[in-house]
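Morning!

This is the sequence you dropped in the shared folder:
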Amino acid sequence: MVTFYHDFREAPAGRHVLKLCRAEACQAAGGDSLAAHAETRLGVALGNTTADGRITIEPVYCLGLCSVSPSAMIDGKVVARLDAKKLDALLAEVDR
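The structure's back. Tokens below.
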């Protein structure tokens, strides 16, 4: 059951939660490279939390923003037309 529901975790989430859409529309609009960028930037794979407990990065399968993909949600705020530059700005914002 823990692996079925993405909000149930074995360990607590980080202070900030970044949910990257991994649905087909987002993948077609560059979501794969965006996910790889996020993993590299944060130093953790999808589904994990940074060593300092600051950010958890999770894959989600559709945020309902297919026409403006790729999309993500950070701390409950949805972000559309995401690219590496926008993602870096979001992560810098939550880092303050």
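Headline: The CA atoms of residues 14 and 54 lie 5 Å apart.

More detail when I'm at my desk.
O.
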